[in-house]
TrEMBL record:
Alphabetic keyword roster: Signal
Signal sequence region: 1-19
Entry similarity comment: Belongs to the IUNH family.
Top-rank taxon, per record: Eukaryota
InterPro entries recorded: Inosine/uridine_hydrolase_dom, Ribo_hydro-like
Protein name: Inosine/uridine-preferring nucleoside hydrolase domain-containing protein
Keyword Signal appears in the UniProt entry: yes
SUPFAM superfamilies reported in the protein's UniProt record: Nucleoside hydrolase
Domain Inosine/uridine-preferring nucleoside hydrolase per the UniProt entry, residue ranges: 32-373
Keyword Ribonucleoprotein: no
PANTHER family recorded: INOSINE-URIDINE PREFERRING NUCLEOSIDE HYDROLASE FAMILY PROTEIN, NUCLEOSIDE HYDROLASE 3-RELATED
Single GO MF descriptor: hydrolase activity, hydrolyzing N-glycosyl compounds
Amino acid sequence: MMWWRDLCVVIVLMMWVFGGELYTVEGRPRRILLDADVDTDDFFALLYLLKLNRSEFELEAVTISANAWTNAGHSVHQIYDILYMMDRDDITVGVGGEGGILEDGTILPNVGGYLPIIDQGVSTVGGCRYRQAIPIGRKGRLDIDTNFGIQKGFLPRGSRKYSPLRQPTAQQVMIDKISAGPITVFLIGTHTNFAIFLMNSPHLKKNVEHIYIMGGGVGSRNCSGCCPVNDNRACQDGECGDTGNLFTDYNGNPYAEFNIFGDPFAAYQVFHSGIPITLVPLDATNTIPINDEFFKAFEQRQDTFEAQYCFQSLKMARDTWFDSHFHSQTYFMWDTFTIGVAVSIMQNSNNNDGENEFAEMEYMNITVVTSNEPYGISDGSNPFFDGRKVPKFNLKKGGVHSGHVQTGLQDPFCFVKDGRGKCKDGYTAKLTGLDTVRVLVATKAKPSQENGSELDKAFYKNFLSVINLPQQTGRFNFTTEFPYYREVFYKPDFRNKELGKPVIFDMDMSAGDFLALFYLLKVPVEVLDLKVSSSGFTCFYVNQYPH
């Protein structure tokens, strides 16, 4: 019986060792990789993530979509500054790369994602087929690159700087983090980076547990550009009622949303990757605008540096907005709401129906439109097929990728006389058939459960609570914010000086007064014993430097 007792001991030890290991794995935080285009709502989402309990959610890397709303260097600096303020310089940031795609479809290492996959050649130089939809100036890249100047004026700066040749690339960061073990991916920009990763490293996709996406419009009806009800003035609807939100191209493509339109073929690869996907489209985000009640509540509650930075940025976006409908029709909690929904689902991971606190969910069969019917044509718009005996990436001849591909904002193929545009590039279509995938889709924001609350959506209160948490809060380093500032206390020594005639100079702080003050300060102290007062301000005492 000794052997039986020894066997029992071994079994108990194995259960203790392996059971403990299983418990440790289950007890580890959920690893997260965020791919973003660093628009205003992207860094709201980033800061929301950074405020979460790190024992539950661990953001390990940020990769940047370099072919959307911001340019590489500016976006990296903003991310670095935010991470430094939040004391999270441990988070890796990846962007760009000098790799390319050969004519035969071979994907070289470190493709930078500066161009959509359809236009990516062997270099980083190319056209702006889809990026034309994003304005360069107002409401576009110039404002977003600098965050209206607020970034430089508010965020402290650490030691990390953008260096094109030494900067970790997006592909390097994705490969390193995903190969390290199970991870969840959040996509809140274009999908170029992650699609290239999937196409070039398919053996690693088994480590991606889930993908959460903000983008697309399934059955949404855009309220931007709608004429007011009973408006007697001459008014012409803009993108009112469109499925998408391309405010620069609703006459040509009323179906697409910016994140998916930025690279439709990349989005198709992501959706059809076989990895479980949760989509938060315009259908849901259009139901949670930055309304006046939320804005006022946010204005009154800014208990942390990160809350202050978010509100100042939001206020600047509102104050410079192009119309008077900021609070009702045009600005929504796109990416932040997506992160909130994702985190809530992850906290209830045993529920396969995506039950969460903030959004109603529904399974749908979805695909991403990458070209327009009729398929199988060759009109010079589609580099995957035009002039090729074998389509690039061995795509199917006459298949869903073989039609006309929108060439830009003024593509004549897209225009219909006296009607809406017909191009559907980037449309997240709800269809039936073999070319669709089953996706969990957020359909609308849940209402607040508090009776009588002015914040009528459940996520409004959650966002304000999280961003104002005293834990894991930002820091403000005055010496890094103002590197040339020095505090020097100077006390002149007049012990061996015979002071001159006392004179009081009363000033109102105008520019001319300061010029006069500087002139008086040049007079030797033996001639003039100067004292200064300021009308309506605090009085102070000034003595000249001894000569």
